[in-house]
From TrEMBL:
<dbReference type="GO" id="GO:0006412">
    <property type="term" value="P:translation"/>
</dbReference>
<feature type="binding site">
    <location>
        <position position="142"/>
    </location>
    <ligand>
        <name>Fe cation</name>
    </ligand>
</feature>
<dbReference type="Pfam" id="PF01327">
    <property type="entry name" value="Pep_deformylase"/>
</dbReference>
<dbReference type="GO" id="GO:0042586">
    <property type="term" value="F:peptide deformylase activity"/>
</dbReference>
<keyword id="KW-0479">Metal-binding</keyword>
<feature type="active site">
    <location>
        <position position="139"/>
    </location>
</feature>
<dbReference type="InterPro" id="IPR023635">
    <property type="entry name" value="Peptide_deformylase"/>
</dbReference>
<feature type="binding site">
    <location>
        <position position="138"/>
    </location>
    <ligand>
        <name>Fe cation</name>
    </ligand>
</feature>
<protein>
    <recommendedName>
        <fullName>Peptide deformylase</fullName>
        <ecNumber>3.5.1.88</ecNumber>
    </recommendedName>
</protein>
<dbReference type="GO" id="GO:0046872">
    <property type="term" value="F:metal ion binding"/>
</dbReference>
<comment type="similarity">
    <text>Belongs to the polypeptide deformylase family.</text>
</comment>
<keyword id="KW-0378">Hydrolase</keyword>
<keyword id="KW-0648">Protein biosynthesis</keyword>
<comment type="function">
    <text>Removes the formyl group from the N-terminal Met of newly synthesized proteins. Requires at least a dipeptide for an efficient rate of reaction. N-terminal L-methionine is a prerequisite for activity but the enzyme has broad specificity at other positions.</text>
</comment>
<feature type="binding site">
    <location>
        <position position="96"/>
    </location>
    <ligand>
        <name>Fe cation</name>
    </ligand>
</feature>
<dbReference type="InterPro" id="IPR036821">
    <property type="entry name" value="Peptide_deformylase_sf"/>
</dbReference>
<keyword id="KW-0408">Iron</keyword>
Amino acid sequence: MKIVTNPNKILNQPTRKVAKFDDNLHRTVREMEEILRNQRNPEGVGLSANQVGLDLRLAVVRLNPDEQDSAAHFLTIINPEITSRSTGQEGEYEGCLSIPNQYGPVVRSKAVTVRFQNLKGETLTIKATDFLARIFQHEIDHLDGELITARSAGPFLTETELEEKFREKKSG
């Protein structure tokens, strides 16, 4: 399993619902978690199935993005949907494992409620705010076939350009 990069058709198509909650699904999730643990980009905080070439409505989200990889805790969201969004929004630069070294400003809701299924097929709901809400929105966009390139409110920057921009803001 490898991360698919843009351009690739699978990244721009809505994924199909997961119907079987079996050992294959569990194996897929473990492999996706390992990709996030072992990837070269330590900023990877979520991974959708279509980012690894699978047409499944499934994503893995790192719940503690500031922890070391060995201590990473993940939440698997299967067939997720956003059931409510806050009216408050915030713009932040976002990156994407499928669009390496490119960061674009994306405006997102500050809080969302997401209904999803877990690995047992049970339906759960989670309310997320701030950075976790942004991660959920980003991954669900992936599952809907939408990349940050479609949502960006401005030009994309490389990591170096982004770091320089924030250095200028701090010193200016």
